[in-house]
Predict the 3D structure of the following.
Amino acid sequence: MSDNESKPLTELLAEASITLDASATGRDDAIRQAGAGLLAVGAIDAGYIDAMIDRENSVSTFMGEGVAIPHGTLAAKDSVKSDALSMVKFPDGVDWDGNDVRIAFGIAAKGNGHIALLSQLATVLMDPEKAEALRDATTVEQVYALLESEDE
Amino acid sequence: MAERTVTVASSVGLHARPASLFAQAAAKAGVPVQLTSAAGKSVNAASILGVLSLGIGHGDEVTLSAEGDGSDAALDSLAELLGTDLDKE
């Protein structure tokens, strides 16, 4: 899978794209906040955020462990300027089509970048202790340390 | 032990949408199904996180395996799913 290589998660996730104490009125609001985190670092055009909601209406991006990974549709790839990740944490949770979501990772990826990116993120979340620590993180340093533990 | 080796047809690989459709189908298969990447890493096929962690791209080969009654039928239908472009919208 050498053609699907991606930068480490910690490089894709800018500090400006992390919000650790957010609240949202619902799923779509949470997706817009995750999209805003990508927009803030110039990784996407604003139109990508609507595509993130379109995608969610098609199939949920809820992954388990209180985490959802909203991202745009294939048709919106042109709205992606660079591969990036955003992280919005909702300490009180968000009702995500019946699932309780504590973290939304917004994903912007060109080409096949998403495969390696999702693989890295899923590998961190498969460890229940790391997933819990990520849900409980209160500083960006904690977030980076947890995501870094999978970088090679 | 029943096994099927399949080439993943989804044009963008087994990522969020195809991975979640596949994991949902595996969860309903009636028997525990293992998904193994060409690199030899095995996960529970019913776990979205597990499936995503394998980082499977378009055209990658994967192996499905299961044991017990109904394994063959379950693997046939899951293999068919992987051989379909799940990302068509």
Remarks:
- The longest strand of chain A covers residues 84-96.
